[in-house]
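User: Some background: our group keeps a shared notebook of sequences we're curious about, and every so often someone picks one and asks for a predicted structure to add to the entry. Today it's my turn. The entry only has the sequence so far, pasted here. Could you supply the structure so I can complete it?
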Amino acid sequence: MSELVNIEVVYALPEKQVLLALKVASGSSIEQALEQSGVLRRFPELDLATMKVGIYSRIVPLTTALSGGERIEIYRPLTADPREMRRKRAEKAKDEGRADKVTGGVVNPQRKH
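Assistant: Of course. Here's the predicted structure to add to the notebook entry:
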């Protein structure tokens, strides 16, 4: 019989976070651990074929073998492109006079116009 190791599975939604602690056989894959944890039944919107998972903020494949003390993180897809949001904030700051129209940086009151 293989040794059992402690792991955690975490999944966060905007309104709710779930942390599940469980024991799995040493060397189990992430996919096996997710199925054993029950998180896939609890959140039917999770699709193993498309979702990304990681161990301590590092994306890894579902076939990755687990060792003791690891935390599997289930990542949701982004709802907005961060680069596009940054561009919109910068444009708004320029329009409102909070950013220099040429450089995009903070307005320098000593700069001659």
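Suggested note for the entry: Residues 92 and 98 are 9 Å apart (CA to CA). Helices lie at 30-37, 39-42, 82-95.
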